[in-house]
Amino acid sequence: MNFMASKQPENSLLGPEADSQRTLYPYVTGTSVVALKYKDGILMAADMGGSYGSTLRYKSVERMKPIGKHSLLGASGEISDFQEILHYLDELILYDNMWDDGNSLGPKEVHNYLTRVMYNRRNKFNPLWNSLVLGGVKNGQKYLGTVSMIGVNFEDNHVATGFGNHLARPILRQEWHENLSFEDGVRLLEKCMRVLLYRDRSAINKLQIAKITEEGMTISQPYSLKTYWEFSAFANPAQGAVGSW
Amino acid sequence: MFRNQYDTDVTTWSPAGRLFQVEYAMEAVKQGSAAIGLRSKTHIVLGCVNKANSELSSHQKKIFKVDDHIGVAIAGLTADGRVLSRYMRNECINYSFTYESPLPVGRLVVQLADKAQVCTQRSWKRPYGVGLLVAGLDESGAHLYYNCPSGNYFEYQAFAIGSRSQAAKTYLERRFENFADSSRDDLVKDALMAIRETLQGETLKSSICTVAVVGVGESFHILDQETVQQMINAFDIVGEQEGPAAEPDAAAGQEAAVDQGGSTGEGAAPMDI
């Protein structure tokens, strides 16, 4: 008995045929992004890895990009969707500049625009599979926010995506304070990135740290963190708890 | 202006390079009751004369809040003005929703001007018969713009539109150099004085005028009748005699720092660039 079976409209994204037209799962992904506010602006760190499943396939992926004059965007998740977002933002900034007046979109405006985009895509069951970090400084005001692939967004003094939420945020909650110097900020970020390197299997030891201040954005050359693998727990990992395989 | 064979359609040029329908629309603005605006570095005040049709009716609303940081005063076909205010409110609210930030007034004014221009280039439309004094804030401070039916817009330090606006303009012309550093209250006083000029001898009271203020740290709002009446009494404007209203002459409106200027001479086309 089949009365009133609900039928999808022809152009909907649900239903078997439409699967080729929407994002079902990510393919090439970036791992955590970590960012914090410091004295002069925002510091953001991300490694340069693009994983293809469990393979660390691409090792020179820039996952942080400047947006306009005042903002910096970092992304984890599907790299091709990040590139798509950069394309949207390119157009947004272009039209903003074409007004040629004294006004410009600041980090708060870009963050909210991205929130609208991510949430609307989620509602159409065709998400951009990214977690984004948007930071910047405009007119002396520092701004740092994040948006997830389902449109959850908020601002904070320090944010992270993915594994960074579980491993880096607790460190930041303990050790972040107002008006960190640049050196202290970098040291704190490196501490977080080191933990992620040890514990996140999709992390690689090649990272960049980006800084954005009222003057503009700079991004470091890729570099590696020093690691120590001689901890006795690493030497004999099964000592405390013998595994079954 | 006299009827001629080139004035039937908005899409017909005259041999002298004029669009008469657009000019007629600007006449409609001149027939509406007066509206004035003036600004300092941080505040803008809008004022208008509100004459009710009869003692039984209420007066028409001519000042509209568009957003917390933008307001508009209109002169001309108030119905057209209402529709344009709704458009402006929509644009502001959509921008606020997307960017969580107020729409810069300079951008809204351009959008409004482009909307008006469309009506000067479609045979199935007519120009909006309303002039708008748009007061608002953006990143660079306080701004006052005048949008006319031709699709042109100009920025002003102070301006007046509508019937008998020339009297107000003359008053403002004399004082405008001081406005930039005026206090908010002095600005309101000058607005009331300018309104008084357009009344030509009639007593200024709060029941026949409306005043609105917007500024840095002050949302756009219309001052209530009591406050306005108190200010009128306090400044003793009613008794003050500034001399008879000046003869309407071909003088242009005043503008502060602008690329375009508008001149309203009797013979010249009103919308020279």
Automatic annotation (TrEMBL), chain A:
| Keywords associated with the record | Cytoplasm, Nucleus, Proteasome
Which cellular compartments is it found in?
Answer: Cytoplasm; Nucleus
PROSITE patterns per the UniProt record, alphabetical: PROTEASOME_BETA_1, PROTEASOME_BETA_2
**Example of a GO cellular component annotation carried by this entry:** nucleus
Keyword Cytoplasm annotated:
yes
Primary location class: cytoplasm
**GO BP of this protein:** proteolysis involved in protein catabolic process
Q: Is Cytoplasm one of the keywords UniProt gives this record?
A: yes
Q: What does this protein do?
A: Non-catalytic component of the proteasome.
Subunit arrangement?
Component of the 20S core complex of the 26S proteasome. The 26S proteasome is composed of a core protease (CP), known as the 20S proteasome, capped at one or both ends by the 19S regulatory particle (RP/PA700). The 20S proteasome core is composed of 28 subunits that are arranged in four stacked rings, resulting in a barrel-shaped structure. The two end rings are each formed by seven alpha subunits, and the two central rings are each formed by seven beta subunits. The catalytic chamber with the active sites is on the inside of the barrel.
Family, according to the entry, reads as follows: Belongs to the peptidase T1B family.
Q: What is the name of the protein in this document?
A: Proteasome subunit beta
Automatic annotation (TrEMBL), chain B:
Q: What is this protein called?
A: Proteasome subunit alpha type
Superkingdom, taxonomy of origin: Eukaryota
Renumbered to this chain, region (Disordered) spans 243-273
Subunit record text: Component of the 20S core complex of the 26S proteasome. The 26S proteasome is composed of a core protease (CP), known as the 20S proteasome, capped at one or both ends by the 19S regulatory particle (RP/PA700). The 20S proteasome core is composed of 28 subunits that are arranged in four stacked rings, resulting in a barrel-shaped structure. The two end rings are each formed by seven alpha subunits, and the two central rings are each formed by seven beta subunits. The catalytic chamber with the active sites is on the inside of the barrel.
UniProt keyword annotation of Cytoplasm present = yes
Please give one Pfam family short name. Answer: Proteasome
Per UniProt, the ranges with Low complexity bias are: 243-261
Q: Which family does it belong to?
A: Belongs to the peptidase T1A family.
| Keywords, alphabetical | Cytoplasm, Nucleus, Proteasome
One Gene Ontology BP term is: ubiquitin-dependent protein catabolic process
Q: Name its cellular compartments.
A: Cytoplasm; Nucleus
Gene3D superfamilies in UniProt: Glutamine Phosphoribosylpyrophosphate, subunit 1, domain 1 (3.60.20.10)
Q: Does the keyword Magnesium apply?
A: no
Domain Proteasome alpha-type subunits, chain residue ranges per copy:
6-28
Q: Please name the SMART domains in this protein's record.
A: Proteasome_A_N
**Gene Ontology cellular component list:** cytoplasm; nucleus; proteasome core complex, alpha-subunit complex
| Task of the protein | The proteasome is a multicatalytic proteinase complex which is characterized by its ability to cleave peptides with Arg, Phe, Tyr, Leu, and Glu adjacent to the leaving group at neutral or slightly basic pH.
